[in-house]
Amino acid sequence: MRRTLILTSLAVVLASGLTAAALAFGSNPGGIGEPVTIHVIEHPITDQVIDIGKSGDSPGDQLPFANPIFDADNDTRVGSDEGNCVRASTAQGRWECTWTTFLHNGQVTVEGPFRDALATTVLAVTGGTGAYANARGQMVLHLRSDGNFDFIFQLQP
User: Residue ranges of the chain with pLDDT lower than 50?
Assistant: First the structure.
């Protein structure tokens, strides 16, 4: 009887500990807790196409970049980005891109297509760090009339 009581007590303690650990890992320390929209503006000052393979605009060409990021008013620098796009199709004017946007409270990574002829493209948010550690969602990229790009992150926890 005493042995059964000890085993039952140990099982209860173990179950309580596992429940507490599960709650701790499932909580949101440092990540976003509710949907959030972040609007920043990229100044594409370093964009440069590297011709790879067939001469001229062709699949496989690279577009590496590392650019400053400004607030939604386009007045104050709030971060930077860096990444690369690979020409996927000249016929469709499509690049496949991956990059990270570095902001004061963390980083957000995105991946997806960019189309030459479209003013607006939507890319997937693939993750983040710091304040954006558990981020997912999408980023709307919009070409502005001044040649800069709106990055509108629509993040979900």
Answer: 1-28
